[in-house]
Amino acid sequence: MVIFGLETTGKSLKADDARAAVAAAMVAELHALLADDCPLRLRDGEQKRRVRARDVFILTFTNHDSQTIGRALAEGRIPHAFYKQDKLF
Q1: Dist. CA 55–CA 68, nearest whole Å
Q2: Predicted structure pTM score
Q3: For residue 68, which of 32, 29, 17, 31 has the smallest C-alpha distance?
Q4: Which end of the chain, N or C, is surrounded by fewer C-beta atoms within 10 Å?
């Protein structure tokens, strides 16, 4: 689990700016986790393997948040899919 925090320089942070910052941090973290040289390995039966995009789940509160994160992942060229997009919040 990765938790991101935002710090401001004293001025107020608008919600859209905060969402964009978190989305950018997620993309950067995923690039590091999915890189060939990432030391993190998952146990798959008796074997160990690299983390793949399909091993990662991002939970959001709203469909709007899901769409925002999805756009950031697409821009970062990270494969993704929405699970039960219309029924799951």
Answers
A1: 20
A2: 0.78
A3: 17
A4: N
